[in-house]
Amino acid sequence: QVQLVESGGGLVQAGGSLRLSCKASGRTFLIYAMGWFRQAPGKEREFVTAITWSGGNTYYADSVKGRFTISRDNAKNTVYLQMNSLSPEDAAIYYCALTSKWYSGSYSGSQYEYDFWGQGTQVTVSS
């Protein structure tokens, strides 16, 4: 099993920044990639960004490209999400996720590719 613990959420004004962290523990040798998803009230969970653990390949949703940056610290088994230029549309619960492989054979952005999930951290953006 793998445990994921997110931190760094909170309240920020529009245009501001936040940095989320997600630390993995347990069977971390399983990590192939880690990602961030978000879910706003009344909406489906959506892909935000992902990074592969060995090659560091990154993937972003169009809505966050140029504003959000994902990074990782392999030694700390931690993935980060730097969020800049936040808008009220970014407000959601942000979930960290981990996969041991792309089950579909390649990156897809689907939440069903991920084996383990964190409990989520709330991001609130005031206008």
Describe the SSE topology:
Layout: E1 2-7, E2 10-13, E3 18-26, E4 33-39, E5 46-52, E6 58-60, E7 68-73, E8 78-83, E9 92-99, E10 116-117, E11 121-126
Mean pLDDT: 95
Show unreliable segments.
none
Overall number of strands: 11
Integer-rounded radius of gyration? 14 Å
How would you describe the shape? globular
Q: For the terminal residues, how far apart are their CA atoms?
A: 40 Å
Helix proportion:
under 10%
User: What is the makeup of the main sheet?
Assistant: 7 strands, mixed
Number of helices: 0
Structural class: mainly beta
Give the helices and strands as they follow along the chain. Answer: EEEEEEEEEEE
> Roughly what fraction of the amino acids lie in strands?
over 45%
Keywords:
127 residues, mainly beta, four-stranded antiparallel beta sheet, globular
What does this structure look like?
The protein contains no helices and 11 strands. The protein starts with a strand and ends with a strand. The chain is globular. Strands 2, 4, 5, 6, 9, 10 and 11 form a 7-stranded mixed β-sheet that branches. Strands 1-3-8-7 form a 4-stranded antiparallel β-sheet, with no helix packed on it. The protein has 127 residues and is mainly beta. The mean pLDDT is 95. The chain has strands spanning 2-7, 10-13, 18-26, 33-39, 46-52, 58-60, 68-73, 78-83, 92-99, 116-117, 121-126.
